[in-house]
Amino acid sequence: MTRTSFPENFLWGAATAAYQIEGSPLADGAGASIWQRFSHDPRLMAAPGDTGDVACDHYNRMESDVALMKELGLQAYRFSVGWGRVLPDGTGRVNDKGLDFYKRLVDELLRNDIEPLLTLHHWDLPVALDDRGGWLNRDSADWFADYARVMYRALDGRVKKWVTLNEPWVITDGGYLHGALAPGHRNMFEAPIASHNLMRAHGRAVQAYRAEGAHEIGLVVNIEPKYPASQSADDLAATARAHAYMNRQYLDPALKGSYPAELKDIFGEAWPEWPEADLKDIYQPVDFIGINYYTRAVVRDDPNQWPLRASPVKQIATHTTTDWEVYPPAMTDMLVWFRDTFGNIPLYITENGAAFYDPPVAGPDGIDDPLRCDYFRTHIAAIGDAIDQGVDVRGYMAWSLLDNLEWSLGYSKRFGIVHVDYQTQTRTPKRSARYYSQIIATNGGILG
Ligand code: BGC
Asked: Which atom from ligand 1 is nearest to the alpha carbon of 167?
């Protein structure tokens, strides 16, 4: 890499999500979410006993957390709103105290010159709606648009970047197909329905934004580039299936107005013929796409693997503690692929980061996390390479600001650039936080 800096106005920030950091999930009249229910069921959690009851106690420490962001030099902060804090029943009555928390957060960010990126939904569906079928109910698209409208009316004057959904693929693959995430279903017939309703919800929320919002709205997806294990026809076909399932299932309908043909092949009779009108609803112009990138997969054909008939082939390489291969070149490949496939839509990297084993105590220079520093250095450089090839990347949000509840894996996986002692709630910036501050201060120039 030869560049010395990133584009002017490139936005450097960090990201979190409501249920992972806030704690106090039922405070001030909030309605419970499916993550509240899931995390309290030890049969469902991979880390039984870990819940979001306290998490990082951000709900009570919001002001000092924003001060920490300021100290680190963050220019932006991506957070999500707990739907049930604002609408305890999912629809209808607004809970002013819950809404007030996000108003205060946004005010505090703006006072500190930190741009808010607001995600409307990062997986914590109100249980009141799950009890009515959740994302399996066609009405969910309107429930979501109504909730989105409440948020636009309250905050569009101050929030200029809105995200509808975070990673619909993870919601359906984890929540409806394999059961590893809330609401914990395992049903091949449900997964396509949940996916489709999530995309209808996205489309309706964008339409509602166009009617009354004044700024920008987009969708956040996770992309995991797929590389064939060999050039055999079977491995190439398996790779195309895996790519369509994980990377194109949501982008194609949102940006092209159709689903990849491979989905019919993967789901068979469980993949319905969708009404044309639904696809029109989904296919709404967006102002940007947010991409969460963590790793890649090398894929081989595997007839025994349901329903994809494809398996990952583990590589000899550094892996994170979530067992994800560290492979920065895929970041560049993925961004170039996106531009070549969907056009030069403005992009933000809305999540990127890694869980590694950190030393349990701070040394003289804080908590030393060289692998995480290296992960940021190489992945941000890989973004620079894509920008050099003309891809319109406008910002980068490190995942995550704080160590937090890694969903069903609980507190054992630490993604933070800031260490959290869960006994005392002490925050200690890791070396990676200091390094990231320098990246920001030099607009990427420190990468050389
Ligand atoms: C999610 C985050 C999660 C991270 C690491 C993404 O899938 O949006 O909530 O903590 O990856 O697994």
From this structure: 8
Q: 356 alpha carbon to ligand 1 midpoint, in Å?
A: 14
Could you tell which of 56, 220, 291, 292 is best to mutate to test the pocket of ligand 1, judged by most ligand atoms within 8 Å of the CB? 292
- Over the stretch 59-68, which tens digit does the pLDDT of each residue have? 999 999 999 9
Q: Where are the alpha helices (DSSP H) in 299-369?
A: 329-342
Q: What is the CA radius of gyration of the chain?
A: 21
Is any ligand 1 atom within 6 A of the Cβ of residue 351?
Answer: yes
Predicted local distance difference test score (pLDDT) of residue 4: 52
Q: Which helix (H) or strand (E) holds 219?
A: strand 216-222
Question: What digits encode the pLDDT tens for the residues 141-167?
Answer: 999 999 999 999 999 999 999 999 999
Full set of structural domains in the chain with CATH: 11-441 (3.20.20.80)
Query: What pLDDT was estimated at residue 3?
Result: 56
Whether residue 183 is preceded by a cis peptide bond, meaning omega within 30 degrees of 0, is: yes
Mean pLDDT of 39-43: 97
* Alpha-carbon torsion, ordered 437, 440, 441, 445, to 10 deg: 120
Please tell me the predicted confidence (pLDDT) of residue 54: 98
CA 239 – CA 227 distance, rounded (Å): 7
- For residue 170 and ligand 1, the question of a CB distance below 6 A is answered with yes
Q: Does the beta carbon of 401 lie inside 6 Å of ligand 1?
A: no
SS3 333: helix
Q: What is the mean pLDDT of residues 208-222?
A: 98
Which residues are identified as catalytic? 167, 351
Q: What is the pTM of this model?
A: 0.98
What is the Cα–Cα distance from 185 to 192, expressed in whole angstroms? 13
